[in-house]
Amino acid sequence: MDILGALQGLPYHSPKTYGSGRWIQDPDHFPRYAEVFAKIAPHSMLEIGAFTGYSACTAAIACDTLARIEWIDNESGCRDSNKMVVENLREIDPDILVAYWRTKEEATPTLPVDLIHIDADHSYEAVKRDLEWASQLCPRWIIGHDYELPGGGVKDAVLEFLGREPITYPVTYGLYIIPADWAEGYALFGGEPIDFQEDDECDELS
Length: 206
Fold this sequence. Notes:
By secondary structure, this protein is α/β, with parallel strands linked by helices. Helices cover 35% and strands 16% of the residues.
């Protein structure tokens, strides 16, 4: 699967100020994302922070199972980016169902949702809020970017939310993975299982 070639062919790209060429061409970024998406094989996906849709398009390319992608993005990174995501996704799969909102407060995601991907405001406070909100939707998986970003608040927020280390994957700047079923998560992505008492409540992934 030629992820990099497909992303290069999208009608809309990130503004040059965000280093669009670097992200599209990095073999440790979207091709690695594709591996994660293919392992999870979601039927539905919700993104918190979509920008111009590279990760959503990568999921659509990697997963034959994916029928619906929804996202929340306030367009602070790029004006009219939500419309760009729609057009980019249509280029990959014209039949995929899409919906988007500018804020979590106005969002009405379609449930159940298999996968939530977080890559928005990277401050500690914002990531913590995103994780808490996402967990209330009872997804099978939460994944998020920039776990190893220097100076970011992502790692601290994730560790406090979980109370332990997440599963990680070697995407550029690090991807954290929080499964509803930790045994399944370790089986798919490796790592050393940790002995802990899982909560039966679906909105308590931590």
